[in-house]
């Protein structure tokens, strides 16, 4: 899809859930890729077809060396901690790992003459937008340190680009779900909190039941509504962003979602259909910090990148998530 520049793409966090899916697509597209990951939450065997350098993205000497030795012209920056409640309990870890490390990475990129950056941002930068729908120009108002740590990184990217540094695309992910349709890689995170993962674990008996956090929201069935995007579509958005930047595209921020939402109960029903029996669940009070509804305005990414979703189908998302969870269970993981 993308015209390789013959130079190398550094993927930080490429052993993690989303990063590893992007690495796979880049390699399949004939790109040269090197991964930098400290394996704190990622997995060595998730990196397929690329060299893995084990280390932290905040390590400036290491990053400078990797950029130089691999002749890197593009950085895709995924490495981050991403668990909202953890960010509330330990904010400095998030500002250190997500914000300060990004600052160090940017310093190295500028120094090494990196031309473009694709950055993993998040819908958490919006906080609780009015009407539950966020456009890229909706005011940002994060309600947790995770969202703030990513927003500060966006600001650094903006300012560094304005000062002659690399151009960038910041992709604001909504709720990423599903796994590689070919079943090679997936979401292996231990103690996961994301709904699809937890629901699949409950379906397979790895957890006794799924807690539904809040049934009294002002939504059609009372449970939280989110815009679930299949990781394969999200990964492809990164390749489209790369093509855009290589074509000289201006720095920009793009929502990554399908533009419509599903409730927790709808997600559970889809996992139940994929599994062939209902997911055991229990109704619980609202989880602190959860917006009732969060859905992307999803036109800008289509207009800017020409990106078109292929898996805008909740049942497909549930099937690929469950298939991966079964594979993990069979491997005793
Ligand atoms: C949040 C962040 C997102 C981040 C993600 C990973 C916001 C707005 N979004 O997504 O940027 O990448 O966390 O930490 O902060 N639910 C249950 N039971 C469960 C788990 C979830 O009912 O066991 C419900 C939640 O209440 C919510 C929906 O499922 O309504 C999705 O939750 P989750 O998968 O945790 O993602 P978000 O919190 O939306």
Q: How many alpha or pi helices?
A: 10
Domain count, please report it: 2
If classified by CATH, what would the architecture of the largest domain be?
A: 3-Layer(aba) Sandwich
Shape: globular
- Classify the oligomer: single chain
Percent helix: 25-40%
Span between N and C termini? 34 Å
CATH class of the largest domain: Alpha Beta
The largest sheet has its strands arranged as: 3-2-1-4-5-7-12
State the major sheet. 7 strands, parallel
- Average pLDDT taken over every residue: 96
Unreliable segments of 5+ consecutive residues = none
Overall description:
39% of the residues lie in helices and 19% in strands. Strands 3-2-1-4-5-7-12 form a seven-stranded parallel sheet, with helices on both faces. It has a four-stranded mixed sheet with strand order 6-15-10-13. The protein is globular and about 55 Å long. The mean pLDDT is 96. By secondary structure, it is of the alpha/beta class. Helix 1 (17-28) links the parallel strand 1 (8-12) and strand 2 (32-37). The protein folds into two domains: 8-177 and 228-256, Rossmann fold (3-Layer(aba) Sandwich); 195-227 and 259-330, UDP-galactose 4-epimerase, domain 1 (Alpha-Beta Complex). Bound molecules: uridine-diphosphate-N-acetylglucosamine (UD1). The site of uridine-diphosphate-N-acetylglucosamine (UD1) has 23 residues, from helix 6 and strand 9.
In short:
By secondary structure, the chain is an alpha/beta fold. It is built from ten helices and 15 strands. It folds into two domains: 8-177 and 228-256, 3-Layer(aba) Sandwich (Rossmann fold); 195-227 and 259-330, Alpha-Beta Complex (UDP-galactose 4-epimerase, domain 1).
